[in-house]
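This section describes the prediction task in plain terms. A model, or a person checking by hand, is given the sequence of a single protein chain and must write out its three-dimensional structure as a string of tokens. No templates, partner chains or ligands are provided. The sample shown here is typical of the held-out split.
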Amino acid sequence: MTRPSIDVRPGDLDLDEFRRVGYQVIDAIAAYHAGLATRRVIPDVTPAEVAARFADPLAADGEAAAALLADWQARVAPLSTPIGSPRHFALVNGSGAMIGILAEALAACINTNGVAWKMGPAAAAVERQCIRWFARFIGYPDDCGGVFVSGGTMSNFTAILTALRHVAPYDSTPGGLQDAARSGRFLLYMSDQEGHVSVMRVADMLNLGRAAVRLVPSRPDFTIDVAALDRMLVDDRARGDLPFCVVAQIGSVNVGAIDPLDALADVCARRGVWLHGDGACGLLAAGLPELAGRFRGLQRADSLSLDAHKWLGVPYDCGLVLVRERERMRRAFSITAPYLRSEAAVADGGSDALEYGPQMSQAFRALKVWMVLRHFGLDGLRAMLGKNIALARHLHGLVGAHPDFEVLHEPVLYLYCFRYVPRDLRGRDGEPEVTQAIDDLNRQVAEAVLRSGVAFVTTTRIRGRVALRMSICSQRTLQDDIDVTFDALAREGEAARGAARQLAD
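The expected answer:
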């Protein structure tokens, strides 16, 4: 057995080699982006083929950095879905702003653990500055609390746990849900149509049970019925349960619905319930003057969430939670340990992020946000957001003008759903057999366009019907990308409608 040497630094490269390979990395990144617009939107491979390409064992001897980069170019990049493609319309995936790639490298260079001020004074200051910038942009108090986390689920978790510990009629920190003072179920509320599944995940994580999430009826425009919510809060409390949080949709995941925040704030204030705004998809739109009316009451929300890796286009991963009263976050998450106090104690007005959120280790996520925001500037940011909304409205016009597509809603933000319905089946969508055929047809159309490599379009369900769904939140998407994608959907619909024709006959 070879004795390990204690006089070498095995993790470091020779600086000349580091420079040489580093320049090659930048060239590889530039080449990847140069081909984004023409790449297939998903690799044409099977899971078994991908697994076989990565079946080699870890070698005993280390490999040169240049060989690792070459393998990234040969195996990793070609077998990765190009989320940055201008025709990637699946889920709500941001395009990955290129300045953020450089920011990631610079953050990794410092390798800051951002949970403690002494571990990274600059990181703490950059994070606070980004929080102030976001708050001012959307019209929220800029002295609010906030932390960066991995994404929307953890943002919602952070906000909803803060809500639970603030609203519970006893101190839930020592005994949690097992405390003898607890009576009844803790309940939270969201829209039955457009509420995000991450709220269910949070209920799981808090061990409240998924049944603790009460689904409130929606109005025709997919927003929550405030009067129905008020009745549910009253009835549930009368039964002995403990309503503690209402989750408002601020840009819902399918149709971009924005719940009536001012009216919700009135109800929550009257009933002693926390109001959280799930803005993972759409909160940035509050910074657009032309949409200000839709966000009336935003500043009254107790907490808000935002995914910077969605519409802002920051590279994955990066979520943010804002809480109007910062001290409530500290009361929810503050924890002590001798090694934390001795090594990371704060002095002279600094603060430790671990006191305000769930993470005990945290990458310097704020740096890429800081650089992306500065790269855009206020005017550039508003122009980018406005462009995506305009593209959704353009798509809406194409759908409305085509005899074989059905409009399902007016676009509010960049999220848009519609349905392929052959003209000879119009008016028969309520017949079970016809509805099933149209549902199947929409699935076939989306899958065919995806297999072609032209665009990544998915399906969802809108009021029980399968619909085509496009999330137009890439900074790179142009009107031509919308036109080409819509033409492909229409073409694949025409090719697949044979079974539907039989029903019409």
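For orientation: The first strand starts at residue 145 and ends at 149.
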